[in-house]
Amino acid sequence: MTQVTQNEDVQQICDLCGSSSFETISEYDRHNKPLKTGICQGCGLVMHQPMPSEDEISTYYAKDYRRDYHGESKPSPRRIMRAWNNGQRILKQIKSFIPEKSKVFEVGAGIGCTVKSFEVDGFDASGIEPNTDFNSYTRGVLHANVENINLYDLKEDYSRDVLLLIHVIEHFVSPKRALTHMRGLIKDDGLLYIECPNVGAPFATFGRLFHFAHTYNFTHNTLINMAKVAGFEVVQTFTDTTNPDIQILFKKVTIPESIEFDKQEAKHSHDAIFRYNWFTYNLRTDYLLRRIIKLTSYAKEYMQANSFVKDLEGRFKS
Ligand SMILES: [Zn+2]
Predict the structure, then answer these.
(1) In b/e form, how buried is each residue of 207-240, taking b as 16+ CB within 10 angstroms?
(2) Which one of 80, 163, 252, 295 is separated from 97 by 20 to 30 angstroms, measured CA to CA?
(3) Residue 218 Cα, ligand 1 centroid: separation in angstroms?
(4) Are 196 and 224 in contact (CB under 8 A)?
């Protein structure tokens, strides 16, 4: 395990609380490449040290992301099937909170399956996706309304009812800036649905937790505080703190809340991350059970994906 060191001389300002005191907890990423990760001592937010610039991130995405992350430049049938089922789950999960025919907008729409799921269900659904790799599939095959536009190029027009941010917030250079901008894209009573990995319920062993693409690692508390400072409050939390995913529906508030940050959050993040070592992590009974279910479902997925995708694509053929 990487040794924990106190790093007082880092002149990095925390995006959430403004503190510049960090505890460095890791020097390597999940592939053993150098990557420094720290916990903000003011609020418990876990992030890269130093934070890459917007330019560095853009260069990384332009060149390496798809390859580094998925090894694909076109979506495989398995990826499409998973994305579609995920879109259906999200639709089912938040549908009762959204008025019929609402304007639903996804930031970071990926292949476009979630946007399409909402569209098929009668919503006015669209989205943006900065990566161009899957664009031709999204628009040409799924006929999903997803454009290749940068978030910050969208005008603050207060026009949308619901924003979706699915496994995207952990990639921003400044989540606060992103959420604040997104607040300007929705109506005064607008909703914001966020999903991201939960670093408080390790989804991997410590050595495999960190990745350059994940500039931030959230716990429930740090995500909720981030949304609060950007002007949102919690409507409904769908996963508990032991789930490897965080899924929360927020609502826009008139005036962003000012927050008293609790220094105990740093300890909370630290303890959550170091709860298991490799041995205890792999011996968790629920982990073993989940692992078996996952492997079984991989095999099933592999066999089903081709015909699933053929049927799906047939539905949207013009
Ligand atoms: Zn902080």
Answers:
(1) bebbbbebbbbbbbbbbbbbbbbbbbeeeeeeee
(2) 80
(3) 12
(4) no
All structural domains of the chain: 5-315 (3.40.50.150)
Cα separation, 253 vs 193, whole angstroms: 14
Cα 82 to averaged position of ligand 1 atoms, centre (Å): 34
pLDDT in tens, 14-51: 999 999 999 999 999 988 999 999 999 999 999 999 99
The environment of the single-atom ion ligand 1, i.e. residues with CB closer than 5 A, is 14, 16-17, 19, 40, 42-43, 45
Q: How far is the CA of 45 from the centre of ligand 1 (A)?
A: 5
